[in-house]
Amino acid sequence: MTAAAEKSTTAGAPAKKNPILHQPKAVWAVAFACVIAFMGIGLVDPILPAIADSLHATPTQTSLLFTSYLLITGFAMLFTSWLSTRIGARKTLLFGLALIVVFALAAGLSQNVESVIGFRAGWGLGNALFISTALATIVGAASGGASSAIILYEAALGLGIAIGPLLGGLLGSISWRGPFFGTSVLMAIGFIAIATLMKKETARPTPTPLSAPFKALTRPALAVLAVAALFYNIGFFILLAYTPFPLGLDAMGLGLTFFGWGLAVAITSVWVAPLLTRRLPRTRVLWAVLLLLALDLVAAGLFVSSTVGLIVAVIVGGALLGVMNTVLTESVMAATDLPRPVASSAYSAVRFIGGAVAPPVASLIAVAFAAATPFYVAAGSVVVASLIVIVGHRLIAHVDHEEEGEIEEAEAITAGE
């Protein structure tokens, strides 16, 4: 064939379709539900002051919306792999979505803060069941290979983290009940989509023993990283759950602030963290970013009376949190030869304890001392996490040399968030 003929043939050939955008309907259904599920992370941030005002609750009581959610999410993580390997991914997804629909609706209908706290716990259970199963479902059902599936999944995750606070601010400016009702409706749509578009599995994986996550915590490397994550999460959730109160903005202002925070988390977790770990050892990235986060939290304390200064600290903190979440969870997955879901669930259960304790403790400290004090406590806790990584380096040094594939990176981002 002549060069001219080759050129003619190439010019007449149809353009290749982007495999990422041409997926089975079931994959789009799960991806849509993923966006909504990850929105739940920052959805309540903009409405915390409004809930406190409307339900005559103290900041400490209101912060328990995070505590109940995180405690139950962490506890449930210990059992999600046991359940999904017995009833199948589809039923686990639907069960998780159904719980979120019911409990988000119930939270929106509540007449007192105690009820909202309780229903947020049920929401946390549903979220744990859904999130722990979604990635494997998308990878298994997507066309165009695992790479396309992972890009789609990470896009859904990033959208959810960023949009959650913004939607919370928009709906919260109408009523504090709006974000709860909005989540319930969107998750109901996701439930219907998965129920109608996703086929039942023909085969299931080998059942996971109930004791597996508990035994995993006896591994020294995993234990070191889990305890470091516990102290790190104290800093994380003081920044996330306490900051709306000293900021003093309305629901829309808080929504925009934490939209910036969520966008920073999404960008650095998906793109910056892998870039850093390709050039530096994971353990070095961990302790260095932890120290930078401590400095950011100190800055938040120093600028606690400055709205602009505190907003900048929140967004910079989001960028650092995104790197930490991904690299820390990648390290956990490389720390042992355990199945990744087992290692991740054991680690998540421990780290969520720090996240659950932090919000009410921060509010109590602010009342007892000053508005800036919780940020200094958060900084101290993050420094402790950095010291644990440094002192325990001998036990975790091997994570610096483990290579992660695309699926492992996506799982790390999921578990980190």
List the helices and strands and how they pair.
Elements: H1 3-12, H2 25-39, H3 48-54, H4 59-87, H5 89-108, H6 113-141, H7 145-172, H8 178-197, H9 212-216, H10 220-242, H11 244-247, H12 251-277, H13 282-302, H14 307-335, H15 340-368, H16 373-391, H17 393-396, H18 406-416
Membrane topology: Multi-pass membrane protein
Subcellular location: Cell membrane
InterPro entries: MFS, MFS_dom, MFS_trans_sf, Tet-R_TetA/multi-R_MdtG-like, YfmO-like
CATH homology superfamily: MFS general substrate transporter like domains
- Spatial separation of the terminal alpha carbons: 54 Å
Count structural domains.
Answer: 1
> How many helices?
18
CATH topology: Growth Hormone, Chain: A
Helical content (DSSP H or I, runs of 4+): over 70%
Q: What overall form do the CA principal axes indicate?
A: globular
Strands, count: 0
SSE arrangement, N to C: HHHHHHHHHHHHHHHHHH
Mean pLDDT: 86
The CATH architecture assignment turns out to be: Up-down Bundle
The stretches of 5 or more residues where confidence is low (pLDDT under 50) are 1-16
Main β-sheet description: none
* Computed Rg: 22 Å
Structural class estimated from helices and strands: mainly alpha
CATH class: Mainly Alpha
Proportion of beta-strand residues: under 5%
